[in-house]
Amino acid sequence: MQKGVPSRGSLLDTTRMTPRRRTRAMTEFLEAQSMPMRFECTRSVGHMQNWSATWDLDSLKVLQAQGAAIRWMRGPHEVDATPDAAYFVISYFGRGVTTGTRGFDEEEFTRRAGEILLYDLTEPYGMDLPDGYNAFGLLISHTQLDLPVAVIRRAVRNPRDSPVHRHVARICAAVPSLQDNPAAESLAEVTVDLTRTLIATAGGTPADAADAPAVTLPLRVERYVLEHLRETSLSAARIAATHYVSVRQLYYVWSAHHDESLAEWIMFQRLDRASHALARGEDTITSVAHLYGFADAAHFSRRFRERYGVTPRDWRALWQQTTACPPADPEPGPRQSYAFSATSRG
User: Which helix (H) or strand (E) holds 109?
Assistant: First the structure.
């Protein structure tokens, strides 16, 4: 196993720790990853060894670990203690047999080396690894998947029912070697899409499986646009290519879920954020225009006036005359309107 981890990741190596320190270090490491668990050593603590690392694969979190025989448990108490840990996990074990239970009904399962194990951090589970472990997992948030929790939990129990089960397993097996690969962003996007299809086909109805890509595409596009809003190269062609659809399909799916066109939505988001920046008065109007994806200040001023009824300069002056606190930058999030009317300020 490669024991290098990117600078933005976390690393735990208990090899040189005292037995008493090892258990505490493992507990702290897992809590830091929003995955608090209890564990039992099937041998003496002196034999317990663990090497773990986490890093980001674009939007995905990867957890890689190897160690001696152990039993992991995430019970109702740990689940209740981390209500924000809404993650779906795909684990791939390189050796040994894994047995355990999952769900509040404690359903039993068995997975062998080379197979993927799915579990949902919003429900309890336990794993027994009597032969030690050499494994890694991909953590995908429920928000990214945008599928009903009931469908996710059914898929966890029936992954082999999906026709893409083997494809996901192959991708998982290749992930550790791609942590510094320039194609990581594309790989992450494909992995999320494929995982979404796996869940929809294994845990949903035929209608869920057929509709999953189209239903979630608008939300994924919104998130992508907000992440790249400041880039002048942002275009429908680029967005479509990133999500592996044609421009025509992108427009078709978008129009089914929005009243405004994609171009209008992007413009509104840019102007909303620019209006906040102008109110704070931290940059010049030209700098604000360039910061939010406008090629020139004249175009920015014209579109700003069309939207707010005043020029960027007058908008800034209105805020300088008031005692109200200038608005902070809006949190990234789809379908939020951050604009406010100049006329409402009296």
Answer: strand 107-112
